[in-house]
């Protein structure tokens, strides 16, 4: 008795194609019209094999305001409102006038006390926005010993306090008005500074800005200062806002670099420096009186979903 033929196996294109070897009687194999080349190509295209160039649907990312996965419509409305972005202010150069002269003299006096070469002007400018320990070890290259770096940083703070002499810091124009505007729209505020807490809190109190911020991040809260964005990320976490929905108001290219590294927007306060030097920022203003709530909202107008 002859052996039985193998059974046809179903093909994903929709027709039954016999197994290799075919029908020994020489008859045509059973196939439906859908097995034509045009039909098979359309079938494989509709199966989503990736050969048609179709992209998958976009998925939600933390920076996009609207989140369709939220079941509560009131929560979605809140995310689309004016309060769903946070503003991060820097202390020196934004909230109070930057004490460039006293800061540089404190480093020069410390160098004289320790028998070090006085730091050049370019090094002093590079040190702005960094923690004292970073400046000592990475910019001035005075020591690699962490304990010695902390000792020099503490001594520099003591010298700077003597130079400042308890003077009341100056608040640039437009700062309090912008803070009032943001608070009226229920947008959270945060302060980030590379200075230690023992200098930040008295400065805020002397300037009349205490209690203005929902979060305050100082050098004591982070391991590294600018251009590392650690301080900005911690501020965003304390404000309960995703980084992509935060805007940093800074006064240097280090601020711009740190903000953009984590997807934050950055408004640069030029002051007396040339505007073109801060051209990498999303927006550059001379003073905060030129900044409105609409300007800040427009920074997020071009938000896009990420497909993956």
From TrEMBL:
The lineage of its organism: Eukaryota, Viridiplantae, Chlorophyta, core chlorophytes, Trebouxiophyceae. This is Uncharacterized protein. Residues 1-61 are annotated as: Disordered. It comes from the Eukaryota. Residues 20-46 have a biased composition (Low complexity). CDD domains: HAD_BPGM-like. SUPFAM superfamilies: HAD-like. Pfam families: Hydrolase.
């Amino acid at each position: 008795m002859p052996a039985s033929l193998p059974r046809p196996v179903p093909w994903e294109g929709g027709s039954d194609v016999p197994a290799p070897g075919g029908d020994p009687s020489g008859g045509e194999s059973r196939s439906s019209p859908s097995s034509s080349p045009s039909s098979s190509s359309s079938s494989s295209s509709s199966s989503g094999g990736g050969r048609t160039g179709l992209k998958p649907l976009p998925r939600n990312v933390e920076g996009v305001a609207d989140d369709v996965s939220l079941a509560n419509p009131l929560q979605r409305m809140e995310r689309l409102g004016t309060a769903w972005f946070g503003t991060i202010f820097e202390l020196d150069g934004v909230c109070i006038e930057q004490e460039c002269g006293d800061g540089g003299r404190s480093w020069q006096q410390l160098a004289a006390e320790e028998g070090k070469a006085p730091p050049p002007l370019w090094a002093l400018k590079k040190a702005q926005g960094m923690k004292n320990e970073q400046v000592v070890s990475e910019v001035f290259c005075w020591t690699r010993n962490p304990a010695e770096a902390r000792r020099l940083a503490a001594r520099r703070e003591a010298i700077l306090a003597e130079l400042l002499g308890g003077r009341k810091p100056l608040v640039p124009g437009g700062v309090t008005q912008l803070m009032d505007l943001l608070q009226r729209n229920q947008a959270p505020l945060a302060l980030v500074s590379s200075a230690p807490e023992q200098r930040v809190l008295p400065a805020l109190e002397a300037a009349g800005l205490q209690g203005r911020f929902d979060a305050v991040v100082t050098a004591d809260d982070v391991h590294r200062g600018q251009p590392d964005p650690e301080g900005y990320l911690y501020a965003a976490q304390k404000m309960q806002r995703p980084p992509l929905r935060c805007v940093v108001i800074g006064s240097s290219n280090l601020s711009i670099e740190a903000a953009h590294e984590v997807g934050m927007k950055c408004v640069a306060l030029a002051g007396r420096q040339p505007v073109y030097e801060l051209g990498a920022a999303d927006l550059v203003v001379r003073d905060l009186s030129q900044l409105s709530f609409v300007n800040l909202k427009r920074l997020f107008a071009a938000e896009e979903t990420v497909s993956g």
